[in-house]
Amino acid sequence: MAELRWYQKLSSNDRYQQVIDIHEQFQDITVNSQAGYYYIKVDNERIWVPLLPGYTIYTAFGDNIFKLFIEHSNQLLFSWVNFGTDVNCTTPIASNSQPDHF
Predict the structure, then answer these.
(1) Could you give the count of Cα atoms lying within 13 Å of 25 in the half-sphere of its Cβ?
(2) Where are the domains of the chain?
(3) Which superkingdom (predicted)?
(4) CA-CA distance, 28 to 54, in Å (whole number)?
(5) Among residues 102, 18, 9, which one has the least CA distance to residue 52?
(6) Is the pTM value of this prediction over 0.70?
(7) Which tens digit of pLDDT belongs to each residue from 62-75?
(8) Which are the contacts of 73, defined by CB distance < 8 A and separation ≥ 6?
(9) How far is residue 6's CA from residue 61's CA, in Å, rounded to a whole number?
(10) For residue 84, is pLDDT > 90?
(11) From CA 41, how far away is CA 73, in angstroms rounded?
């Protein structure tokens, strides 16, 4: 099994995380695709996790570097970019966006 590593990149060029109208009510996105939270179980407790547009992480799966980020354009969009082995993350080799998951 490939090693999984998570990184969060913050820079002055990143868009700020946004709290938007869909965050007014606690609704789980797995139940309502227009919701702004995941309702998950952590250590035998259930917690609300906000899905914030602008949140971005970089991770490596095997030898590939991925950027995962959340956008908002009338609905939440879960987007990813595969940079392959490009450690500078300047040349994407594949990408996709979907309204329901990465």
Answers:
(1) 6
(2) 4-98
(3) Eukaryota
(4) 19
(5) 18
(6) yes
(7) 999 999 999 888 88
(8) none
(9) 9
(10) yes
(11) 28
